[in-house]
Prior knowledge:
By secondary structure, this protein is an all-alpha fold. It has a single domain, classed as Farnesyl Diphosphate Synthase, CATH 1.10.600. It is 71% helix and 1% strand. The protein has helices spanning 2-23, 39-44, 47-56, 63-74, 80-101, 118-122, 124-143, 152-169, 174-185, 193-220, 224-251, 254-257, 263-266, 272-276, 278-298, 306-315, and strands at 111-112, 115-116. The chain has a two-stranded antiparallel ribbon. Helix 3 (47-56) packs across helix 7 (124-143) and helix 8 runs antiparallel to helix 10 (193-220).
Amino acid sequence: MNDIREFQERLSEHTKTAEEIVLRYLVSVTGSADAIPDRKDVLMHLSVAEAMNYSLESGGKRLRPMLMQLTFELFHGTNVQILHPFMAAIEMIHTYSLVHDDLPAMDNDLLRRGNKTTHAAYGEATAILAGDGLLNLAFETALLASEHCADAGELMRIVLALRILAAKSGIRGMVAGQCIDLASEQGVRPADAEKTLYFIHENKTAALIEAAFMCGAILAGAPATSVDRMEEAGSRIGHVFQIRDDILDVTGNTATLGKTAGKDENSGKLTYVSLRGLDQAKEDMEDETEKAVQTLKEAGAREEDFIVRLIRYLTYRDH
């Protein structure tokens, strides 16, 4: 019981830290209402800026920035001033993907993280622009790391981390996974459903988790072999995370999940549970978790490290 309490306390601390770092980079909406506004003031008073902040402030596990920070610490990184902008950036990218995922043209959902989705609160057009704004702000924010370089080597690590972040969130990563996922929602069933589902999990979900691990390792100065190990761990953990999501869609409830339960099943969407069944999904999830933990250990993590304990916890989360 003490171990569980201690873990929950540490998880709360890590979540709070990640939250504080992310929210440092919110869009400023301050300005004088009775003065002639300059260009920046006009932009900041647009509702899209409020919608961007609303989306980013709506809570969530802050898992991706947390994993990035834990990986940075695993490889004994020291310059947190280059880490923090990347932590905020990856959460902005994740949040933009949720804003767009909830749109009527995609998942058409009205509830996210227990709150109204961005399009439900601000309208569809503003939500589209808010997602666009968050994606661009992510790279503006990540580039702020360049102001805190200690040397040329650190600058090169920032450039490499930016390349990873862009690739994993783009058409060779998250966007590709979303495209195939949409096709499955529309009743398109390719001949090789299992291969297709793996592609969706690897890109829509795992790609950003891989980016979190890889960027944390790169910014800490880890060798290329370790970065590769962390990419493999991120891939496995991403699959675990999505399988758990698919299970919770069947077994969870809307109040606990903070989003509409049963939506995937009701829409006939291709999921791990629909493909393999609930019992097999649970078994495969646990097996993949152990493989992920083993990969982390090969990269230098120990069983007692918080990053390993967090991965095991994610396997049994209820939201």
